[in-house]
Amino acid sequence: MHNFLILLLATLAWGASFHLAAQDIHIVPRPQEVVVGEGSFTLDGGIPIRAGAQSEAAARVLQDAIGERTGIRLAIGGNAGSRAPAVKFEVDETLGQEAYRLIVGGEGIELLASGGAGWFYGVQSLLQLLPETDHSVESFQLPAVTISDAPRFAWRAFMLDEGRFFKGSEQVKLLLDEMAHLKMNVFHWHLVDDQGWRIEIKKYPLLTEVGGKRKSSQVGPLKWDSPIQSAEPHEGFYTQDEIREIVAYAAARHITVVPEIEMPGHSSAAIAAYPWLGTAKQKIEVPIWFGVSQDVYDVSDPKVVRFLTDVLDEVVSLFPSRVIHIGGDEVKYDHWKSSPTVREYMANNGLDTPAELQVFFTNGISRYLESKGRRMMGWNEIMGHNLHDYQDTADTESDQELASSTIVHFWKGDPELATRAAENGFEIVNSLHSRTYLDYSYESIPLSEAYAFDPVPKELDPSYHDNIIGTGCQMWGEWIPTDGQMHFLVFPRIAAYAEVGWTEKEHKSFEAFKAALPRLQQRWISKGIYYAPDAVVEKQAAGN
């Protein structure tokens, strides 16, 4: 009798049916519309998945995820005309490119979309309805529900800066997986900076051989003022084959990889490799201190401009992204002002200030990218904005007009600058540093503040709202030498920013978001992500 009871209990534990109550429907980012019905649907191994050629990739994502989570391996196939219960992927041409409709009823599950992205995002929502179980089950129940959903913004980005600390493919893929689960669609990859060059350029091998290494790194705890060095070399870069692999990995998750190749500033690593690139034409080392560059590209030198277009040629061949980010921030104009050749170049081209020179140069890069079928994006200094105390106000005066096709990445300055740019017809990605920078502490940007960010400036007339195409959250790398430090700062705030980008303001709820976090945290634990605990983000938020 005793052995029979043990066997019975084991069988029940193995073959139990799990039920998710309607009140437990928590999906991040929060859908635009959720209508809970009556009853439920029982999913077991006998339920097939029916998908067409367009939806088969999303169907396989669902098949694999259900198998991993529950042990149930659903078959893809079956009679398309059958009315028997099934998980059906169906085409609805009335839905937008990333929109989906998910219907769970007593007769099965329907996922409707007009293309791959919509089905993929519907799958991500369906997976968040699955019950939590750490072992195989024979079946589980899902509540009857209809979800109609589409993103608020087209550009929903996460940025990783690897110019400062190289992370490698494994961490990048981990981040891409979490972005995909949260319906984020742009991986902004900051691959070069003063302290490191992380992308192989075959025509200029010293960029990685020299520029991809530094002999030490500034470390905390005082951060920017810290006199402490690690006394440990740091190096790393991605080969072009590795780049292609990551781009393909992202594409399979409906994420576009947008590379950032800094110019004309933040260029010390490149100048260390090839001193003739700099304004001073002097040999330097890859900086071991963080902060603004020791030198900038000499944009008056045709050989330097050719170098930059050569680099962009290889970048364009690696990244299918329609948009290429050229940085353009924090260019110290003193370097140009001290150069006789640069001053002569400015005079010959009717350029009165360094800001005009930067816009003139940037427009040339824009034309070059357009000749390659691409579009330029840059931080808002590329408009000639005066954002920094170290610049003389007179140096930032400009009557040069930035190329109208430019996407302006707003990060610093009076929000009126973003409003004015939008009113002038520019498309804007709003990543205001005080609200979206992940290197900032939870005391500076608590979870509640991250969640409350609205990319559309309050003063912007509604007729220009469509010019705000989205937002991004930025993980700058100066103070994240370890993966764990990065995890702590990124998670859980990345989930808040995902909802900022996806969910319409009137449908957002911070209380509902917090209620959904435990499910995400369990996912992160299973993947070895060391997120910031609730006590940290809530304590800091309360004291903010």
TrEMBL record:
UniProt keyword annotations, A-Z: Glycosidase, Hydrolase, Signal
EC number annotated for this UniProt entry: 3.2.1.52
Catalysis performed (reactions): Hydrolysis of terminal non-reducing N-acetyl-D-hexosamine residues in N-acetyl-beta-D-hexosaminides
InterPro entries in the record: Beta_hexosaminidase_sua/sub, GH, Glyco_hydro_20_cat, Hex-like_dom2, HEX_bac_N
Domain Beta-hexosaminidase bacterial type N-terminal residue range list: 25-150
Enzyme class: hydrolase
Active site: 330
Residue span(s) of domain Glycoside hydrolase family 20 catalytic: 153-504
GO molecular function, one term: beta-N-acetylhexosaminidase activity
Keyword Hydrolase listed: yes
Record flagged with keyword DNA repair: no
BP term (GO), one: glycosaminoglycan metabolic process
A GO CC term assigned to this protein in UniProt: membrane
Signal peptide stretch: 1-21
Family: Belongs to the glycosyl hydrolase 20 family.
Protein name from the UniProt record: beta-N-acetylhexosaminidase
Organism: Neolewinella litorea
